[in-house]
Design brief:
By secondary structure, this protein is of the alpha+beta class. It has two domains: 208 residues; 147 residues, 3-Layer(aba) Sandwich (Aminopeptidase). The strands form two sheets. Strands 1, 2, 3, 4, 5, 6, 9, 10, 11, 12, 13, 14 and 15 form a 13-stranded mixed β-sheet that branches. Strands 7-8 form a two-stranded antiparallel sheet. 37% of the residues are buried. The two termini are 34 Å apart. Helix 6 packs antiparallel against helix 7. Strand 12 and strand 13 form a beta hairpin. It has eleven helices and 15 strands.
Length: 386
């Protein structure tokens, strides 16, 4: 691999059929969201609280929206982006900050469907972007609904460090339930029997914003304690992240976009699960559960199972366990869906970041070598794999 291979500073060809418009900030009216044209994380219900939290706590981050059209003005796609400083680098990235699981454009009728069209549209985007050291686009699915993701058609695509975990169900809930491994199914059934022996123990869906915020506060306590127990850093209490989740719950519950389910025994919160829904697609994004005596029923896993059952009855058919390949997810038999990164230097200062990203992507395609490299660097195996 050479620097020339990575197309450092590509320019738009003179005959490009695409035009771009960059707007400072982001508004739902300009975004013009439509169902089926993005992932669940590009809906206004996600982006509005995200940008509001960023504006309040990170004034040095510059939000922006890029609109791409064909030469007749028909929308091709829109990008919700931001520019921020990371060390001594100025980066252009998706509206993410490690809160969004899947990043993608919002597609329009003229969205590119071939590698040539995608490259032309991207070259036009780069002409509109502000000066920066690198563009770093991460966690992108190859498809958006039934259409190709134009950004996943670009050359030099890298495998992302994470992947999705999808369970696609048919109309028959029992077909899924009895299709689980026998030991998993029996354990879930036993756990539910044990749990419901407690007084006033059941599954509840929280719809009142004030109650939901109280649940979120308890989730933060449980998750923080769990991460300290594991010796892992806890970042969900950082100001912009914590504010984002509060805004997401305050605004998203009423529309049915945000869904908060809990297992409660009397006044005790045993487990809580926050997810987001787009039509028949549900993605879980945050899980917390009590330990101590409740540990014998695996309350987090039990809550996931009962939430899937409830949402299936309400019309959901696709359930994404989101990023992270933890053992509790594997028990439900999800299919791993690949995600991709595109990292491109825009100045000489951005070259080392790009080279490191490409080296990491190369290693991800060689898991045995990657494990050896981690060992040589003194890094333990990822706890996700246990």
């Amino acid at each position: 691999m050479t620097i020339a291979d990575l197309d450092l500073f590509a320019h738009a060809p003179p005959d490009t059929r695409y035009r771009t418009r960059l707007t400072a900030g982001w508004t739902a009216a300009d975004w013009q969201w439509r169902a089926g044209l993005s992932t669940v994380f590009q809906r206004p219900e996600w982006l509005a609280p995200f940008y509001d939290a960023v504006a309040r706590h990170e004034p040095d981050i510059m939000p922006m929206t890029v609109e791409v059209t064909d030469d007749s003005g028909v929308p091709a796609y829109r990008l919700a982006l931001l520019q921020r400083a990371v060390g001594n680098l100025r980066l252009v990235e998706f509206a993410d900050l490690n809160m969004t699981d899947f990043n993608a454009p919002l597609l329009g009728p003229a969205a590119p469907r071939s590698t040539e069209e995608a490259a032309q549209a991207w070259a036009a985007v780069k002409r509109a972007l502000p000066s920066c050291d690198a563009v770093r686009l991460t966690k992108m699915p190859a498809m958006i609904g039934t259409r190709p993701n134009p950004l996943a058609l670009l050359p030099g695509l890298l495998p992302a460090a994470v992947n999705g975990n999808v369970v696609a169900m048919g109309e028959d809930w029992n077909g899924f339930h009895f299709g689980l491994e026998r030991t998993v199914r029996k354990e879930l059934e036993r756990s539910w029997r044990v749990f419901t022996r407690a007084d006033d123990a059941n599954l509840f869906t929280v719809t009142d914003p004030a109650e939901a915020l109280a649940v979120l506060a308890r989730m933060e306590e449980l998750q923080s304690a769990r991460m300290r127990e594991l010796g892992q850093p806890y970042t969900l209490d950082e100001p912009v992240t914590a504010d984002f989740y509060r805004r997401l719950i305050e605004n998203g519950l009423a529309t049915g976009y945000a869904i908060l389910t809990v297992l409660r025994a009397g006044s005790e919160l045993v487990a809580a699960l926050l997810g987001v829904r787009d039509g028949d697609n549900y993605v879980m994004i945050r899980l917390a559960h009590a330990g101590n005596d409740w540990g014998r029923i695996s309350p987090g896993r039990l809550l996931i199972h009962k939430t899937l059952e409830k949402l299936h009855a309400d019309g959901c058919r696709s359930f994404d366990f989101s990023i992270g390949n933890y053992a509790y997810k594997r028990r439900f038999g999800p299919v791993r869906t690949p995600l991709f990164d595109h990292v491109e230097a825009r100045s000489l200062r951005g070259v080392p970041l790009m080279l490191r990203s490409h080296a990491a992507g190369w290693l991800r395609q060689r898991p045995r070598l990657r494990a050896r490299v981690r060992g040589m660097m003194g890094k333990p195996p990822s706890r996700e794999e246990f």
